[in-house]
Amino acid sequence: MHQPLSLFHKWIQENNELVNKWKVGSQQLSVDHYLHMYFISLLSFPQCPCPAGIAPIADHTQLELTVVYNAGVCLIAQSQFLEAESLLTKATERILQMTGDGPFASDPPVFWKTALKSVGNTALNRCVMHLLCLQWAIWLATCKLQTIQELQLLSVFETLSSGVWDEEGSAPRTKSSDIALPVMDQRRLIELLQICTFIAQGAERLSEGRSSEALSGLQSASSLPAPRTLISYTHLLSGSCLAHMSRPQMALQCYRMALETDSQCVCALYQSMLIYRQLGNTQAEIQALRLLHSTLMLPAAKEPSPAGVHLLPSSLLLQSQSLSSLLSVPSALSVLHSLALKCVLHERVAEGVEYYLDLLAALHSEDQHGVHAAGPPLPKLPELYLQAGAALLMARRPADCMALCDEVITTTLELLPGKVVLKEPEECEAETRALCEEVEDGVGMLLWVGAAYLLQGHCHTHLRDWKQAVTTYTRCFNLLVKVRFKKRGDADMMSMQGTDLCILQRLKGLSLAGRGISFTQTDQLREALRDLQLSIQAFPGGTGAGLWCGEVLWRLGRKQEAVACWERTWSFTPHFSELSLAVYLQEPQSGPLLDSTELRRRIEELSPI
Amino acid sequence: VVIACPGPVTDLVESHDKRFLFVACACRVYRVSSQLLESRYEPSSRRWRDEFLSIFLAFAEEGVLSLLLVGSVLLTLSQRRSSWTLTLYGSSDYEVLRSVSLASGVVHNETGTRRRPPLTCVRSSAATPPPSASSSVSDGCLCLEPILFKRLFGIDAALAKSPVVLCGLPDGRLCFLPLRPPGSRLAVLHSLEQPVVFVGASGVTDNGRGHARCLVAVGEQGKVVLIQAEKGGAEGGADRTGFTEGCVPGPVACGCVDEKRLYYSTGSDLLVLDLPEESPERDGPSVEKSRVTHAALQSPSSLNVCRVLALAPPTREVELLGLSARGQLQRITLPVDRGDAGWPNAPSTPGGRGVRDLLSAIGDVCERAAALKAAVKSKNQILRRLNQVLNICFLLTADTNTGERDKPIGCRATASWSRLLEEDSLTLTCVLDNSSPYVLERGWTLSVAASPLSGPPAAGGQSPSAHFSFPFHGLHPGETLEVSLPLAAAGQSSLPVTASCSLSFSLAGLLGEEAAALPGLQPGCVSLPLNTLTVDWLHALRVTSPAHGKTPPQSGNTSDAIQAFLRSRRMGCGGAAEAGGERGRHAASVRVSAESLRDARALRASDADAPPDVGLSLLEWLLSEALGGVSAGRRRGDGNVVVAEGRRGEEEETTPTAVEVQVESSSVAAVCGLHHAVLTRIQVPEVTESGALSFSMVSRERLLQRIQQSRVSGAFGVGVSTGTVCQSLLSVYQELRENPLIVI
């Protein structure tokens, strides 16, 4: 009798020592140590130490289950879910066999149901419940929400937490050396599990489209006691639900609450940005993007977590695909890029240029900060260079723009293939995923170089260096005619929009127009007329080309034709907005301009005659 | 100063300013100051080690294998459970900047040792300031010509002027990771399909610009991949990146390149390979070019230096540093002009050491030749044996396809009772008969799996089966091998038992001991089924061995065994049978028509002349037949177990129409078992003798015809009343009842 008891105490002592050491902070090592100790002691521990008395058995089993609980927490913390699960079931089975119950089903839900039933209201009940909590954590971490729902764990533990746990609060005060300490407070664990389950369920329902159902669960979860991060998740998901139910304003409220709860919740910022974008509120969107970027660039502050919680981080329990897709935020660089682009497109060029320069600097720096997040990848680097170049030109910094374009050209030029065949869109469609995805396909590179030449041409035009401008535009055009493509019968602009073909035609049109305009400045009107007409042919709807073509006709004395040309240009409604094109493919704002009122005056002068 | 690291060191790099040394060792990375290494401070070993652990520890990294310093970034390549991880640390504060993982493929690493995967850094020469003249290496980075760099690593990396980390993984993949722009992914450049040993760059046509035009990767088994930018032909064909693959005799232990040559060590020799010159001006047909390349890749020349483990690239024109397995640091002078003599000069050192070196070189060559000869011999041996094995395989598999012909290699068996250690047990003696023209050599194993056809399920739920295997040392044509295996003790057998015999051959045995000792080797095994034998109740009731002739000697031993066996059966079915006495006796009978018995080949053979007593001969046949390969002694029914009687028919006096075999016993199990055994035996000739009509086939046919008739007439209702139909069906039924085939 004496021998097993001393073993019992020794065991408690060892366990508590480990737990305390853990809490003080020696971390990784003690996990292994702990598991090791557990298995060894399990072997040395007699299965039924004292058949005569009931009380010793209860003590022993309670101790053993606490140790199993601790070991289970360690295993789960190390993501060894399978091992943890088998440990839990084996231990429970063992205990239940000691109390004399028969074999159990291998199906986990059924197993736990019978286990709980057979434990009944004995002292073991609580210990087994703790193990069930761990099983719950495993199910949660492995996204088996169905099973959790089936067992109604949420409601089971809700009633428990109100009743049983209060007694427990007074119980441990008896003698701390007699009670084996848990490595993580069970009540904390249950709270954590409850809110995580709510969040995971909400995300799941949201992704299945059952928004209102998800919303009610999330609302009730937001009042639970939990760490700030998790509460902010509930607000965030509620917001997403509302956004799905097309209540953008209420959604914005929820995102605001999420941010107020946890200022690190960048996802809420991102989501509100998306809503502003959806609402068409550009200024607010730009503001949100700016905030988002600066938040992302902040070093992540470590929130002090209550003791024990850090053992099982909520990220371990929230691994479902739908949740992580809801919580994903693009990388800081990607945010910076959209910010810069938005600014440039919405008349905040100076700001936009600064952002672009920041972006390029970040891309060249060794600093790898803030790129861990997944999300849409940045556009290819040449694309970014061209966008930045266009922005610089808009900000009237042609020299910088030229330098950027030079860089693109020198890097890419020697890789250009001798001749390129552009596939028809639908033909390409089939092979798109396989072939066109290839990192540097010939057409893409050629279009980059073409656009770089075009921008350089614009720069020269801006600098009124007409001769240089003509050479550069010619280079661009010569490059573009290398591309062969079979033109379909009715190649309308709508269907071409966004394709390589469209970009190609646009580039051709702009370069020809640019050259034509340059010719007009040097009074080579014939060449100018030819180029401008070709430009209109290549890409109908270019305003610059149309107006200047009329101007040249006017100067040549073909006034009627000129008027017709102008009116055609004004009446032409573009099939698609200019905004959908890349920023470097837009009509240059910096070249010589024609005043529309002046033109109209001329028409009026002409018409009475 | 000698520093004892806490474990095997996997990699070592020096910082750019040569002030520190980074050491990867046992899942940790340490930073050791070089000054300390040069100092004369002699620490006491024990404390020193602990200090080493604490002072110099930079960071912990699980499974770290290689290190690389690029600028201010320290890269580590580590092997985790199922992935390769490339982690970037800031080299000042060791903060993890980034971590990229790649799922690991199949690692072709049989030896299980952790080799350091080569990790190098490559820059585009356009992105670096003009480097110091001769070397293509600047701050530890290989400098590659811009066009090749752009082709391989993409425009983004080139625009960002990024260094690219190249790593050759032990699973054969050559991966690269551009350090900029941030967010670029780890991608696979090429797969060598064997562990990558070396990655380097060679300035093949280096014309003073200090950049390499060719990337070289070498695999462990000797695959060499040259990666070059190929100019398209004059007709404007697309420019491509050329991957030229070649194979040199491996295994390659280490390698290095200089501007024109690849040096590599196979452990037994150091070889030089001239890298083919890819001049961009020559626009020959690419087929011819590639042929030239291949030819060049296949003719390495030997330098006759063995056991080189590590190489450093030539510092001067003609010198190479090598570290041998014996721990010697060797300075290897390369032959300067290799055109004048067919042989490259042996490593020559100044003065009178020439003869000694020559002698040692000869010794090395001798050693190598002997080892090679032995290897060739053993491989021949193995091939010869493998040939035999394949012959046997084809022989046996071909026979199973053509049907149940007699196999040239087969198994016969005899069941008998034997007494061992005061316990009777039923022993099955299997005889493996090799009548094929091939020798079954060492390495073959006869395995017999005995599993009861039915029986009480074991604890695990699956039916219990016993496996026996008998490895043997060669069985020449015409020889036989006899093995015996215990089927069951008298008390606890459940008959009938199927014994499936098969011949198996383990490929591991073929390779010999040294191969079998390898840890990761999957033992391949060829298993050829021979025959399946059934041991049933009739075999178990055998009293005499067939050799003893007709008169049963009734040896006490055997009959005791049988009695015990029967008793155990009775026990098995409970006490009811014993209590019931005479009333509890169970009986079963099988009736066999005499015609079919006469036709059956087995009976014809034994009773050629003189119309015999059919009943007796049937009984004899039942107990003696050799079908299924198991032969048993005959036995008279002793009244207790088997009663067979010939029941004479009414029509003829001389020959009975049917023979009834009656099985009678007080044990249900015995009756059932015997009944089953008898039935299976009678059914077997029915199958084999397709011409003979067994049982009451004729009457069955007749009955069916009558049923058919009545159904037809019933359906059409022509002239037959329902009453007559009923009548005829009733008579059919009665006939069926009267002539039961099986009566219990």
From TrEMBL, chain A:
Highest rank taxon of the organism: Eukaryota
Family annotation (SMART domains): TPR
PANTHER family reported in the protein's UniProt record: FANCONI ANEMIA GROUP G PROTEIN (PTHR15254:SF2), FANCONI ANEMIA GROUP G PROTEIN FAMILY MEMBER (PTHR15254)
GO biological process: interstrand cross-link repair
Record protein name field: FA complementation group G
SUPFAM superfamilies attached to this UniProt entry: TPR-like (SSF48452)
One cellular component (GO) term of this entry: Fanconi anaemia nuclear complex
TrEMBL record, chain B:
Entry's Gene Ontology BP terms: interstrand cross-link repair
Entry protein name: FA core complex associated protein 100
Record-annotated membrane-spanning stretches: none
Record's GO cellular component terms: Fanconi anaemia nuclear complex; nucleoplasm
PANTHER family referenced in this protein's UniProt entry, alphabetically: FANCONI ANEMIA CORE COMPLEX-ASSOCIATED PROTEIN 100
Pfam family, one: FANCAA
InterPro entries: Faap100 (IPR029251)
